[in-house]
Design a protein that fits this description.
The chain is of the alpha/beta class. The protein has 11 helices and 11 strands. Helix 7 crosses helix 8. The termini are far apart. The structure holds 1,4-dihydronicotinamide adenine dinucleotide. 1,4-dihydronicotinamide adenine dinucleotide binds next to strand 2 and helix 5. Keywords: NAD, Oxidoreductase, Tricarboxylic acid cycle.
């Protein structure tokens, strides 16, 4: 099989899925926060995905209508809507993959960390239910601040005695999608050929594209490198400002999350060589317990956390500079569960 790498293709998912004999494993995907700006288009993309057999949509509001609407699309995926904590267990039971975009998004002027006070509790409560009803599912967290919500999820799962680092993934694939798009445009390359690994975390300067490891190889002057790195790291803020108070990235995020979900399901189905960048438990960087790098996805979730590869001087400096922020945001998440104020 061809080696699949993150950013491997921008072709529509149905086309990619259509290229190979379909693995007919029954796969239930649960989406928590399914009626939101990300949740609705992500639900649509999952309803169109040939590797999904059952789609369970959960939200605290408006999800029954979303499920009814989506259920009329004549694809084989079975759709059900669940609302309110008393229906959460039924939503989660039997899920192979759980994706969480529940929570509030940024408004202009806010950092992702400004969302902590609201979203930390939402993620903790949802993950407590995951621990109870679907402890063996792969769990993908979209809710910001990802640098803190992933450690919150890990500590919550640990407290329930069901934590397995292979099955907890912070979704950073939008950063890779953006990097691939911007580098393709800047260099006049075909989108489907470009793969830019993005490492670190998912907030401001913790988002570090490794332009020196781009496939196919590209060259930038030092000034261009800095400008491109800043453009990728600030892309989310550009969308927040353009939406002017009506939310943050939703369509591109749904696209990126659908890609991550499909890669995860391919890995679960035993497809070899499925790589994506993701924020996971890691020992790649000293004293930084979670870090985003390329990971190999397999039958149990993350099969292998890949190393950093060779960084150029600019990337080494950017990595050193991000670590205090990243470590601080990770610790804030850990403390939220372990040492609540
Ligand atoms: P939204 O406000 O449009 O939707 C959020 C949904 O979550 C709403 O339908 C709401 O009812 C639901 N919700 C709130 N509390 C809930 C609970 N306790 N249980 C279940 N559902 C609940 O927000 P949007 O735009 O969909 O963004 C969602 C999250 O994704 C935000 O935290 C945002 O910052 C994050 N995000 C992450 C990105 C990433 O790259 N990882 C990129 C873009 C956004």
């Amino acid at each position: 099989a061809a080696r699949r790498v993150s950013g491997r293709t921008a072709a529509p998912m149905a086309v990619r899925a259509g290229r190979r004999a379909l693995v007919c494993e029954a796969r239930k995907v649960a989406l928590l926060g399914a009626a939101g700006g990300i949740g609705q288009p992500l639900a649509l993309l999952l309803k169109m995905n040939k590797f999904v057999t059952e789609l369970a949509l959960y939200d605290i509001a408006n999800v029954v209508g979303v499920a009814a609407d989506l259920s009329h699309c004549n694809t084989p995926v079975k759709v059900a809507g669940y609302t309110g904590p008393e229906e959460l267990g039924a939503c989660l039971k039997g899920a192979d993959l759980i994706v969480i975009p529940a929570g509030v998004p940024r408004k202009p002027g806010m950092t992702r960390d400004d969302l902590f006070n609201t979203n930390a509790g939402i993620v903790k409560a949802l993950v407590e239910a995951v621990a109870k009803y679907a402890p063996n599912a792969v769990l993908e967290i979209i809710t910001n601040p990802v640098n803190s919500t992933v450690p919150i999820a890990a500590e919550t799962l640990k407290a329930a005695g069901v934590y397995d680092p292979k099955r907890l993934i912070g979704v950073t694939s939008l950063d890779i999608v953006r990097a691939n798009t911007f580098v393709s445009e800047a260099k006049g390359l075909d989108m489907k050929d470009v793969d830019v690994p993005v490492i670190g975390g998912h907030a401001g300067s913790t988002i570090l594209p490794l332009l020196s490891q781009t496939t196919p190889p590209v060259t930038f002057t030092e000034a261009e490198k800095k400008a491109m790195t800043d453009k990728i790291a600030n892309a989310g803020t550009v969308v927040v400002e353009a939406k002017a108070g009506k939310g943050s990235a939703t369509l591109s995020m749904a696209y990126a999350a659908a890609r991550m979900a499909e890669s995860t399901l391919l890995g679960l189905n035993g497809e070899p060589n499925i790589y994506e960048c993701a924020f996971v438990q890691s020992d790649v960087v000293a004293d930084c317990p979670y870090f985003a790098t390329k990971v190999l996805l397999g039958p149990n979730g993350v099969s292998k956390v890949m190393g950093l590869g060779e960084l150029d001087a600019f990337e080494q400096a950017a990595l050193a500079a991000m670590l205090p922020q990243l470590k601080g945001e990770i610790q804030k998440g850990i403390d939220f569960v372990k040492n609540p104020p």
